[in-house]
Structures are given as C-alpha cells and as structure tokens.
Amino acid sequence: MRFGPHITRRDFLNGALLGVGGALLGCRPPPRRHITPALGPDWYGYGGIGDYRWSHGNTPDAVETAHRLRDGGFPADFARVERIEDYDLVIVGAGVAGLGAALEYSKKRKAGQTCLMLDNHPIFGGEAKENEFDVSGVRLIGPQGSNGFFVPAAVSDPEGASGDPRYYAELGVPREFRLRDWGGPAAEKPLRFSPDNYEYLVRGLEGQTSVGHFFRTSTPGEGTWAIDVWERRLANAPLSATVRATLLQWHNSGATRHFASDEQAVRALDVMSYEEFLTKELHLGPEAARYADLFLASACGLGSDAISAYVAYQLPMPGLTEPLPRDLRRVSFPGGNSGFVRYFLKRLIPDAIAGTDSFEDIITGRINLAALDRAGQPLRMRLRSTVVSVEHEGEPASSGTVKVVYARDGRLHGIRARAVIMATGGWMNLHVVRDMPAAYRAAYGQFVHAPYLVANVALTNWRFLHRLGITAAIWDRGEGGFGYTCNIRNPMQVGRYQPPLDPDQPTILSFYTPFHHPGLPLREQTTRGRTELLSTSYPEYEHRIYTQMLKLFAASGFNPERDVAGLVLNRWGHAYSVPFPGFFGGASGRAPRDIIRKPYGRIAFAHSELSGWQHWGPAADEGRRAFTQLADAL
Ligand SMILES: Cc1cc2nc3c(=O)[nH]c(=O)nc-3n(C[C@H](O)[C@H](O)[C@H](O)COP(=O)(O)OP(=O)(O)OC[C@H]3O[C@@H](n4cnc5c(N)ncnc54)[C@H](O)[C@@H]3O)c2cc1C
After folding, report:
1. Does residue 443 have its Cβ closer than 6 Å to ligand 1?
2. What pLDDT is attached to residue 222?
3. Which of 336, 335, 329 lies closest to 200 in space, CA to CA?
4. What integer pLDDT is reported at residue 9 of this predicted model?
5. Cα 158–421–601 angle (5° rounding)?
6. CB of 92 within 8 A of CB of 98?
7. Global pTM?
8. Banded pLDDT at 17 (limits 50, 70, 90)
C-alpha cells in the first residue's frame, strides 16, 4: 500500500486510526481527541499522491496570507517589493473564470501583448481540482470540489454561443464516455451508481442510483436503513403518515408557476426563499424544505431557507419545474471539472500537460509546472502567488497603469499592468483592490459566502456498501455527527486509467459536506460553518468521519483498519456565493452583481459568484466578459 512520499500505511494508521480500534469491537465512537488550534501542523493532513498532493482545498499558506491581508498586514505600494515586472494584462485567479479570460486573451491578443496569471495555490483550477490515491497499485482520481455536468447541446458556431455549449465545442471535449459495466461474478446485486457526486440527490434522477437512507431510532447510536425510498414511494421509510405525505407531495410537484421570460421569473421568484415558496405557496410542512436542503446546500452552500426560489427554479427543484427526464445523465471526469481546467490549460500552454491533445492525455497526463511561467511566453502562469494589492497609478478614470503587489515565498513582488482582471471572489477583492469605488464596496458587501468540505476517503474495498445494496447514503445526522451524504461514483474509464468497479476492489467514497444551520441568519450560518471548518484539525475530522462511518456501516462490516486506505480533506473557506433572495435583483430588478460586472478604470471583475449559482461554463463566460471589457485598454 502506498500513500505517496511521506506516508506509509503503518504511519497513516498510527496517526489516523488511533482510538478507532476499540470502537470496532463494540461499534462505539472512539474517544474524542484534543483539538489542535486552527492551522496547526496537523491542520492540513494527508494530500494523496501525484500533482495535486500539495494543493487540496485551501492551503494553510493561502488561508494565513488571506487572513493577514484582511487584517491589513500588506502594503499597497511598491516601496517594499523585490522587483517590478511589466505586463499588458494580469489575471488574478486561475480557476475556470480566470482561464475563460485567458482563453479570450489568447484569441484576441495583439502582437507583442503579454499576460500573467497569478494564483495563490500550488496548482491551477481553483475549486476544480482533483485528489489522487494509489491503493495497492490501483490509481484512483476524484474531484476536490466541482465534479459534474450535463453534456450540453452541440453548437455549430461556438463563437455565437455562451456557457457550457460554447466551451464544450471550442475546447473539443468528447461527448461519449465509457463507464464500468456492472455485471459478472462480482455483481451479485443489481446496483446502480451515480456518475458524479450530485446525481443521487436530484429529484427525478435519484432512481439511477442505489441510495440508502439511514434513519436513527430512539435508541442512541442505532438506526435502520431504507433503500430506494423514492421508488417505493417512501413505503419502506420509518416516517409518520403526515411526513410521508408531505415529502411525496413535494417530490411529485411539477411546475406550479409558469413565466413568459426569465426576467419575469426573477421578479416573481427572487423575492422569497425556496422554503418560503414551499410553505406559503405549496403549503408544505418543513420536512420538504429540510429534504431539499440536501441538494441545495450541496450545490449552493446553504439550504432552502437561504436560497432564492429563482435558483430552485433554475436548478430545477420540485414545485417550480417538472422532474428531469430519467434518462438525462450527468458526467464526471475522473477529477471532476478539473477535466475542463485541463482542457483550457492544454489549449493555452500546451506543454503544461504531458502528451498529446487526446482525451486520455489531457485528463490523466502529468502536469509540467515548469512550462507555466517561461520567459517569452505570451501567457504565463505563476502559482503560489497571493495578490495583496491592486490599485491604479493615479485616478482610475485617467490612469494608464495598475500597480499589482503579490506575495510569494515570503517576499513581495510588483507588477505594472495596463489592465487587471480579478477572477477572484468578492471576499478577497474587498481587501485587495485598494481603490475600489464605494458603490462596488457596497455591492460586494451584500454577497454572502458559504464554506464547504469535500472529504475523499480512499477505500481498499466497499463490501460494506454492497452488503447494504447501496452506492450512496443519506443519513439523519445526530448530535456530534458528521456530514449528510456520501457516495461512490461509477468511475469513468479513460485509456489506461481503468479504475475498478468491484466491491472487493479500491474506490473513493466522497463526502460532500455543507455547513447549513436552517433558520439562523445567513451570515451567522456561514460564520459558524467557517469557524468549524477552519478550527477543526485533520485528526479531529478523521475521528468524526470514521465515527460516522462506523455508525452507518459497522453493522454491514465496515472496519476502518482494514477498509480505509487514506483520507484527503478539501476545505473551501468561501466555496460558494450564496444566491439569497434578491441576489438577482428581486422585484426591483437591481442586482448588486450588475454593479460589479462593470469595469472601473482598468480593472474588471470576473468570478463564477457573479453568475448566481456557480457553474463551469458561466464561470468562463464571466472571464470572457471581463477581458472583452478591458481589451481596448491593453
Ligand atoms: C464543493 C463544490 C462543488 C461544485 N460542484 C460543481 C459542479 O459539479 N459543476 C460545476 O459546474 N460547478 C461546480 N462548482 C462550482 C465551481 O466552483 C465553479 O464551476 C468554478 O469552478 C469556479 O471557478 P472560478 O474561477 O469562478 O472560482 P475559483 O475556482 O474560486 O477560482 C478562483 C481562484 O483564485 C484564487 N485566488 C483568490 N484570491 C487570490 C489572490 N488574492 N491572489 C491569487 N489568487 C487568488 C483562488 O485560490 C482560486 O484558485 C462546485 C463548487 C464547489 C465548492
């Protein structure tokens, strides 16, 4: 068993599972560990193997630098920088939005123009990165965050399109994929699998997955499983008749409102939360909203009480749209939407990913960091570089240049640019962009950002799920419990990358975990969540995750000593901008994001948060829009 350069299986078990052994016998939770102060040496934890091992979720360095920035710890001027470089364009942030800006730059640049992308993490991709494991010689890749998509409609003129269809066509992403067949001697049970980490939560598509619901009983620590509850119309779920009726009514609700235009939908729906819609218009009990939280909080950061009914209409949720056709399937590349990031990068800096332009090479090829930042390239990318100050030289309206200061390896560096695209979130921009006009500050002040944790557990086998007849689990979380849902995907097969789908072979079990506290004010929910996310050490999370797994799966044979090969935590402090009621303009039609989407002077803003609910194609559109706004300033 290999765990990468620093961890042997024995080391890992000694560190990770201390205390769990006793619990195996009686299935009691292991004793609580001492919680190490935030960002202590045991905060970050094991990172897997491969190119992404030093960059899983927010790195301690990125978090600490960001906090220092928030507390005013960095200068804005060039007085303390080591050197000053000149570029025509600087793009801050190498997530999908930054890459969308870079793609447009690379197509529209005039001869001699130069661009530098800066990102504060050791690997590009932002929230679209991947984890990699080697379990007994089996290579396993899973997403750190952004993980799935619907294959968009084909377009003959990508330039005339936007969002997913545009970039899908422009980047030449394939439309047919190979998953593992479930059959043969290993497949004693007719199990179904989500291709990604969301589909099993989506009304209408959940039937594609064998989903188990775990209901706690009145005896502490005990519960019962109900499998495929929606197919059985909840008949097998231990619920009261009233709750069952409420959930079925919610689940069966088609579109109860119809709109002639999107603008009409915004004005009618962006004035209330989805929970308000369910209770006031559909007259449903709170159980419907709490069930809807599972998907909404997973996709938007907070639950039904916080999310605009307009987003529920877009996503789509019961009561506002018809169920999705059952045969509509999502797709997830091995590393989730890091696959799109790799496509962008291969187009922009071909040497950055080893191999050819084939799907296999782009998706599974090794990253060549040395190719990113070579002198003379029209587009360069510099990682581990936190931008701490962006400001026009002189008045924004008349200035010819923007001063950029960034921190790298404990030193400050300067750049003078003709224009800057901030492909970063508002929580960061408020501190970095020093001459931001008051109206932008006020607009950004209305944004709310929610934290999120993706925990990927590499398993040596998943017999304990197979025995239950499930590939995804949803549970009734108890006091001190961890998470709400987890699943294994049917892993995409890509060339020589052939991960197994066999209960006696390794796989990745992913816990997509939001921090929502229904009923509390939005900011209180996100602050509580962020405090927990950032102040909990890796061993403490390990303890909580394995304890939860024991609660759920000990009876079906889960044994952490034997079954767990590794755990990677991907902590996202500001994972999602929460699309609350009014985010899109509400009844007035005036949305804070409309202000931010306009450039001022030589600075423009691009981040998926401006799209409302975050998604890869619209993220790239924001970058393209920002470049187009500044193109004449270069
Ligand atoms: C858990 C999770 C699951 C998701 N699932 C999906 C999904 O299934 N499908 C989908 O389409 N979308 C999904 N998303 C949304 C996804 O985040 C977006 O689609 C998109 O990847 C975001 O791109 P971005 O460029 O806007 O932002 P980011 O990915 O946040 O990129 C911004 C980059 O800028 C860097 N940065 C910030 N400040 C600075 C600074 N001062 N200096 C230098 N660099 C800085 C950040 O570290 C980051 O690398 C998911 C998001 C999360 C959190």
Report:
1. no
2. 85
3. 329
4. 38
5. 115
6. yes
7. 0.94
8. very low
pLDDT for the residue numbered 183 = 74
How many angstroms separate the CA atoms of 283 and 276, rounded? 9
175 pLDDT more than 50: yes
Ligand 1, atom 2: nearest CA belongs to which residue? 145
Strand (E) or helix (H) holding 286: helix 286-300
| Band (186; pLDDT cuts 50, 70, 90) | low
- Closest C-alpha residue for ligand 1 atom 1: 145
Q: In DSSP terms, which residues pair with 8 in a beta bridge?
A: 2
CA distance to 13, 378, 406, 585, per residue, from 89 (Å): 48, 10, 15, 31
Three-state secondary structure call for residue 465: helix
Specify the residue for token string 């109860």: 256
Tell whether the torsion through CA atoms of 437, 441, 442 and 443 is positive or negative: positive
> Does the CA dihedral 121-577-337-500 come out positive or negative?
positive
Confidence of residue 35 (pLDDT cuts 50, 70, 90): very low
Which residue from 92, 127, 302 has its CB within 8 A of the most atoms of ligand 1, so it is best to mutate? 127
**CA–CA distances in Å: residue 632 to residues 160, 437, 602:** 21, 21, 10
245 backbone dihedrals φ, ψ, rounded to 5°: -65, -40
- Ligand 1 centroid–CA 284 distance in Å is 34
Structure tokens at 212: 């188990």
CA dihedral in degrees (498, 502, 505, 509; nearest 10)? 90
Report CA(625)–ligand 1 centroid distance (Å): 17
* d(C-alpha 200, C-alpha 418), whole Å: 47
Residue 431 has a pLDDT of: 96
Instruction: Report d(CA 571, CA 530) in Å as an integer.
Output: 10
> Cβ contacts of residue 616 below 8 Å, gap of 6+?
96, 128, 146, 149, 164, 167, 337, 340, 608
CB 46 less than 6 A from any atom of ligand 1: no
Structure tokens at 111: 């001869």
HSE on the CB side for 21, CA within 13 Å? 7
Tell me if 319 sits within 8 A of 253, measured CB to CB. yes
Query: At residue 184, does pLDDT exceed 70?
Result: no
- State the distance between the two ends of the chain, measured CA to CA, in whole angstroms: 53
DSSP state of 489: B
Radius of gyration in angstroms for the set of CA atoms belonging to the chain, rounded to a whole number = 24
Name residue 211's amino acid: V
CB 509 within 8 A of CB 454: no
**196-224, pLDDT tens digit by residue?**
999 999 999 999 999 999 999 888 778 99
Q: Using the predicted structure, report yes or no on whether residue 16 has a pLDDT greater than 60.
A: no
Distance from the alpha carbon of residue 48 to the mean position of ligand 1, in angstroms = 20
CA-wise closest residue to 72 among 383, 386, 384, 389: 389
pLDDT tens, position by position, 301-310: 999 999 999 9
**Alpha-carbon span 491 to 442, nearest angstrom:** 44
